[in-house]
Amino acid sequence: MEKRNLAIFFFAGCFSTVTDGCHVRACQDLEMLLALGWRVAVYSYRNHHQWPWSAKGIETFRDRFPGVELVLDDWNWKLAFLQKLKGVIAYFGGWPATRALRTWLPLLTPEFDRLQRDPDLKLALVSYPWGISHLNGSPGPRMIVDTHDLAALELIGDTPAGQPSTRSMLTLKRELFYLGQADEIWSISYSEGQFLKSLLERERVRIVPPALRSWDVAAATDTTSVYDLVFVGSNNRWNGDAISNFLNAYGGWNLPLKIAIAGSVCRDTRLVAGNGVELLGFVDDLASLYAKARAAICPVEGTGTKIKLIEALSAGRPVFAAPGALTGLLPGHEDCVLPLDRQSIVTLLGNPAALSSAREAARRYARAYSFERVVAETSEGLAGERVAAIGIPSVRAISSR
């Protein structure tokens, strides 16, 4: 049997059904470890409160990642109590908090304990800073934390500018403590990565942008446009609030546009079809949907990098975006990511030559997010045993469920 170094990838719940942006990121992280030659065991909690592992989720995982071991333990009240205790102590930092994070209690996580006994265990990649506190003990001899996004920055964004709440400052202190325990930190967002570099040891922070394997849109490039604008999103409060507020503003613009909204966000009761707006619900083939649209919109503010925005760009569609959606992007997006306002939309959509140019700019810019490029830029010091990326399963775009 081939002997390779083992990496544990931890995501608290099921991500294989890809119903959220964080699931896309989880699949990307797993793909990267495989492309770098690691033998990977995915560790998770079977009965996670938000994303439990159903029979369908397990089957989908095994179909998408054949040969990758899925290791599940049950979350219980003892683990929940331990996690809460670690979280409280982490506010204070120092050696007591470090000791608390490393606390291990026997018999609670038999499958995790089995992984810890593997002599080839060399690396653990943990999703979210708080993910460390959800583990029963230290995950491995070397730990990487993928931040996804920072909860503290979300809380700060909910308060008036320059007036962060006490809760947001305490959350930031705790998140920085968690990240301080990691050997390396991955940031999906360019701006958040720079922020963390200013607060932590710069050499431990690495900007790892979303690396989606672009779907094949070549056959659909000449499709007649059905929609002027498209938005794809899952049903969470950020998407629901953002698209609802945009449609309220759009109602006063007096524009004869056709706007398609896809994804489980269509279940939000504030969204109503009409005035050129169509609620498509789940759409299995997002590539074809983007091919039928002239451009995309991303009204969502907040932290991290909006994967829906990168998907649209990789499909060759310029994006009209809210200011907060721009902060996580790599530099160079100015020709294909435009302000989400009436004047910008009218100007671009009313000029076929400018629209064509923006589409080409979108495709060029999206190359910075290609899987091969991101893997190459992240591979230094991370190769488990170098292998070609050929044969690694492709991560689909975020499901529009």
From TrEMBL:
This is Glycosyltransferase involved in cell wall biosynthesis. Pfam families: Glyco_trans_1_4 (PF13692). It comes from the Bacteria. SUPFAM superfamilies: UDP-Glycosyltransferase/glycogen phosphorylase. It comes from Aquamicrobium ahrensii.
